[in-house]
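Section handout 9: paired folding examples.
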Amino acid sequence: MIARFEELDWQPTRMGELTLRRRTDPETDEQIYEVKLGDEYLMSSLFTVAEEELATLGLASVEGDGLNVLVGGLGLGYTAATALLDERVRRLDVIDALPAVIGWHERRLLPVSASIVDDGRATLVHDDFFDVMRRMPRPGAPAYDAILLDVDHSPRHTLDPSHADLYTAAGLGSLTRHLSERGVFALWSDDPPDEEFLSTLTSVMDATAHVVTFDNRLTGTASSNTVYVATQRVA
């Protein structure tokens, strides 16, 4: 029998103490998975609609087949798992800076872990997504048809100060070097559409902001996140 509250893993990281825990909803008996970094809640399996829509909206804007896709931020795995539902995806690389998170999925601790690690198209990579975007692509490295990013709370509320440069015109320009000719960059944000950031994004790519609304069982009201979708301009 599963306890009402279980700590499945705890790891110290450079950004704070990372905790994965599982609790059982006393009303529905549903198992809910939560991730905390220090005292801050990062994510919950109660709310996965926007993470799934990040993949759905991003890939809907990509043309063609045999797609190479990069996910920045593994988390609970819902963005990666949703991307793999698209049969056009040939290769999926998932980068996470925290080896503990990769370990959770390799140990199949989370509901969608098996669907990711057992899919031969998926590779989990321990690296810093933001550092990868700053670098020039390695010779012979695939250009990505889609880059799907869910790490920070929003462009204004980053988990680490070193992430902030990605959300500038220069940082976004560096990211486009990793995209194919008509590649797509999609970004999850916990904040409402940010016109200043959207203007910056539009200065580099053709971009729109989508509001994703979902039922919030904790408040009994609707909540929303934002998914930005931007397409590489053809010179």
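Moving on to protein 2 of 2.
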Amino acid sequence: MLDFPPKNIQTYCEQHSEAFPAEILKEIERYTHLHVLMPQMISGQVQGHFLALLSKLLAPKKILEVGTFTGYSAICLAQGLQPGGRLLTLDINEELEDAVNGFFKKAGLEQKIELRIGAALDIIPELSEDWDLAFIDADKMNYDNYYELILPKMRPGGCILIDNVLWSGKVAEPELKGKKTIAIDALNKKIMQDPRVERVLLPFRDGMLMIRKK
């Protein structure tokens, strides 16, 4: 991945954004950079706090996350859950299961967050409906499939967030190169024309689509 946005811009944003107070997130960042390939996939301070603030604004009862990684974004999203609310996060990587569940426990969120290991394309069809908030940040080639499976299960007015939709700016190049770039661009164009939703593509970090179901 390219340095996107530029490092100086990212640093400036971090300096002018409130740092998340939870010490556990610093521990997750350290663990991710020491033990996990592609640690840049972690949400980080600015995006993490954005997710937490948005969740607090929406006050969701049920949150669905596709792509847990090391649990950083799930902990942020869980900050806005209503009393008795829950967050279900899905990931295919069983090697990180124990570490991630350990982080959730340290954060005092083991009763609110459930990590389910398996293929999201198999799990999502079995889920109930009326989700309030969903965050998609997993394998890019299946973004469209996740979107189509999740949208019917969202309550009217529910919000879906899709991460990495600028793909280091590659989607805006004159000639699109690479299967993932082409797939993400196709999804962006599809959602732009989707009458079922309202949408805005935010030039935030690596790009985030914010979608409201009508």
